[in-house]
Design a protein that fits this description.
Blueprint: H1 3-17, E1 28-29, E2 33-34, H2 36-48, H3 62-65, H4 68-74, E3 78-80, E4 90-93, E5 103-107, E6 112-117, E7 121-126, E8 134-139
Antiparallel strand pairs: 1-2, 3-8, 4-5, 4-8, 5-6, 6-7
Helix pairs in contact: 1-2
Length: about 140
């Protein structure tokens, strides 16, 4: 298996290992708590074997002031064409029409995502109604 395919396969397995983690704003600890960004940071740290980077304090308006593509690229994620996303890649979703992308998830299969949802925690859900809301995709860093 090539390195990118192995990374994607590992990312899906790790993301599914977070299922059941409670939703906690600003957290990224499997089994203890995570928000959508924390899930991505936690899986990235597990893939790389490196601790997750320190995150600035959470702000309620982060989605309006954060360029997710720039943040992802600066963290070593490869930005992808959303049409080319594959299981194991990160997707950013627009949950509100016309808004910037403000929710992150990991594509677990062609039809499902793993994401952290307030009130539900980390879950795997069907992508059907959300597929058209994918506005950014990125691959986890190889290292």
């Amino acid at each position: 298996m090539n390195p990118a395919a192995l990374r994607r396969s590992n990312a899906v397995a790790l993301a599914r290992g977070w299922i059941g983690t409670p939703y906690v704003t600003g957290a990224a600890l499997r089994g203890a708590g995570a928000d959508c960004i924390g899930l991505i940071e936690g899986v990235a740290a597990e893939l790389s074997g490196q601790p997750r980077p320190e995150r600035p304090p959470w702000r309620a308006d982060w989605a309006r002031i954060t360029d997710l593509a720039a943040v992802a690229a600066s963290a070593g994620f490869a930005i992808l064409d959303p049409a080319a996303v594959q299981p194991g890649d990160v997707v950013a979703l627009r949950l509100t029409r016309g808004a910037p992308p403000h929710h992150l998830a990991i594509l677990a299969s062609a039809a499902t995502i793993v994401h952290a949802v307030e009130g539900a925690g980390v879950v795997e859900v069907h992508l059907s109604s959300l597929a058209q809301r994918i506005s950014l995709a990125a691959a986890f860093p190889l290292e």
